[in-house]
Design a protein that fits this description.
Keywords: DNA-binding, Transcription, Transcription regulation. The chain is an all-alpha fold. It is built from 10 helices and no strands.
């Protein structure tokens, strides 16, 4: 069963990468699902079993927060520090340290060049953000409030953006988590935390 899940995930990622490349080269409206199927090496039927349309194929399947990590976070862990624990909760969503920089650069270029893709990314981000805000409030208590939780999540998003720039520009090719931690240290220093 695990092998079938891994195979499905690999195929999904491959299709999404091909869709992103086609989007980067031709724009979102510059290719068809048939051309995507051909570029991906899958049948049209298989393609539609994975994604209902080009927009979904380009964005791919987004990871979900791990239930065990959520439980630990809501219980006040793993470190007992809200920002550090938020880092631990969401960092797995951001990919692993072997992410290809060239693919990230291409993806960023393709996304920034298409307002429909940016809008769809924003919608997905809002969904994840709302979930994380709810987890923060559950952890910190209702007195902490959604407004404070939203500030914490917004800081996290800004740290991600700064870390992504650092990751893409790093000639030493250190992992993304290194750059995220550097951004977190900088934010703590600037905020006096």
């Amino acid at each position: 069963m695990k092998s079938a899940k891994r195979d499905r995930a690999a195929t999904s990622q491959h299709i999404s990468l091909c869709a992103m490349r086609l989007t980067d080269e031709h724009g979102l409206d510059g290719f068809t699902m048939d051309e995507l199927a051909e570029a991906s090496g899958v049948s049209r039927r298989t393609l539609f079993n994975y994604f209902p349309g080009k927009l979904d194929a380009v964005l791919g399947e987004w990871p979900a927060l791990d239930e065990d990590d959520i439980d630990e976070f809501r219980a006040g862990g793993p470190a007992g520090d809200l920002l550090l624990d938020l880092r631990t909760l969401v960092l797995p969503l951001l990919g692993d340290s072997t992410t290809d920089r060239d693919v990230l650069i291409m993806s960023r270029r393709a996304l920034r060049g298409n307002s429909r893709l940016m809008s769809a990314i924003h919608e997905r981000y809002e969904g994840i953000s709302t979930d994380v805000i709810d987890h923060v409030v559950a952890r910190e208590g209702s007195g902490f409030g959604k407004a404070n939780a939203k500030v914490a999540v917004t800081i996290l998003a800004a740290l991600f953006d700064a870390a992504l720039d650092g990751f893409l520009d790093d000639p030493r090719t250190r992992p993304f988590s290194h750059h995220f931690d550097e951004s977190l240290r900088t934010a703590r220093s600037l905020l006096g935390a």
